[in-house]
Amino acid sequence: MAERKWDPKHSKPRRPRDKSRFAPKPKPARPPIPDGVAVLYGWHTVAAALANPRRTIRKITATENAARRLADEGLTLPVPPEIVRPDAIAARLSPDSVHNGLLVEADALPALELEDLTDEGIALVLDQITDPHNVGAILRSAAAFGVSAIVTTARHSPEATGVLAKSASGALDLVPMVTVQNLARALTALKERGWLTVGLDSEGETNLAAANLREPLALVLGAEGKGLRQLTRETCDIRARLQLPGMLKSLNVSNAAAVALYAARQRLGGS
User: Fold this and answer.
1) pTM score, two decimals?
2) Beta carbons of 101 and 95 less than 8 angstroms apart
């Protein structure tokens, strides 16, 4: 049998392999969030929102297990929940979000004015702290130590939704938030109403644990790295430091808030 020779003129071109079926499928686009709507997820966050009469709930998305738990806990649901699979909730959130089978769309809480703040107890004043994890953790400590309110600026502050609400573990609906346009003017107004304003500063001349504190007391915290802005620092009655015994003399701002609240409560007599 004669050997068959390959002729490029009569050979059929090889069809390229279809690799599209092996390509990763594009992730579904997250639906846009309307203005003024807060997305809340996680058990403690959602439970606190449902229990807050100041919250207006628009929509509840839950897995079967989460909906059953809501019923078992006796929580009043203003709207019937939409039952979905867990991955339907996960698709609306960042990959590392722990939602516990619950997601709620609600109206943002109405912002309070400085005039709404009662002149008693301890308030935390945040000077351009923008990280939502930190603000959420500060809210959680504030709820634990019975803080009367948190004062923050309208600009350079994270939105009270999503990551912040989850980090707060329900405290967003427990601690009143006061929004001001100018922090230095707000501190001056508080001082005129009898508040003692104490700025936390690693270089402060006074040890907070030994400071002469009284109520109403405003503890002022600055952003990590930058600390208190100059005008904020100059406006405070006292610039106090946390006396730390270790080699490091600074803390994450949310940890510093918790330590400062404990020291202040001890100094005020544990009230």
Assistant:
1) 0.84
2) no
